Amino acid sequence: MGPAPGEPEADSADGLGGDGTVSSGTKVANQEQHARSATRPQRPAPPGPLKPTRARRRPALIALGLALVALSVLASVYLTTTLGQTYQVLAVTKEIPRGTAITSSDLAAVDLPTGPTLLKPVPADQLAQMEGKVAATDLSPGQLLTDTSAVDELGPPAGQSIVGVALAPNQMPTTDLKPGDAVRVVETPATGGEPPVEAPFAISATVIRVEPSTLGDQQVVDVQVASSNAAGLAARAATGRVAIVIDAVRAG
């Protein structure tokens, strides 16, 4: 049965009007669907498989690596051949004060590892040449002997002189004098004379050597003084009217 007079003709189920045209409702629905499709974000396409990269060879790095390997091998060979090798040098076995003659019993041969060193010890086969030389400085037990440790003759430095002073036991302290001790050589009055009113003449000096004298129980003390005082000290020492006062004892 057709529609009642005055009523619009109903749309067909497939959206087509009775005359076969698209209805207005269907057009609106299609337009809304198209708009939603246009505003929907598009998913990016999945990335394609990565192309395998080809490692580039660097000749300089390869050469450097080979050089380091070769250097390591050479170092290992050097350590292997030198490890355990020693050579004999001279070492001090007991204390040798400065200015004292060196004897063979003062030295001994010791083994020293081979290799680079800043030391220049005297080889053990030069023991005979070292005997009779004078210690240039105080030498301690265990110290390696070097070319500068011993000299043929010990001389004072520039501006200094060495004077020998003969002293009786009552002219020096009972404390043993040793090379390096700082002392003063003091002029004393004549036997039985009055003590000086003013400060007596005195010269600062450093003990170089002490040796027994061939004259009685005297000791001969070699002292180092300024060259300007050497003549005055020698003149007073010749009178026998001097005495030694210790100011500082050598360390050690």
UniProtKB/TrEMBL annotation:
<feature type="region of interest" description="Disordered">
    <location>
        <begin position="1"/>
        <end position="54"/>
    </location>
</feature>
<feature type="compositionally biased region" description="Polar residues">
    <location>
        <begin position="21"/>
        <end position="32"/>
    </location>
</feature>
<protein>
    <recommendedName>
        <fullName>SAF domain-containing protein</fullName>
    </recommendedName>
</protein>
<keyword id="KW-0812">Transmembrane</keyword>
<keyword id="KW-1133">Transmembrane helix</keyword>
<keyword id="KW-0472">Membrane</keyword>
<feature type="domain" description="SAF">
    <location>
        <begin position="87"/>
        <end position="151"/>
    </location>
</feature>
<dbReference type="Pfam" id="PF08666">
    <property type="entry name" value="SAF"/>
</dbReference>
<feature type="transmembrane region" description="Helical">
    <location>
        <begin position="60"/>
        <end position="79"/>
    </location>
</feature>
<dbReference type="InterPro" id="IPR013974">
    <property type="entry name" value="SAF"/>
</dbReference>
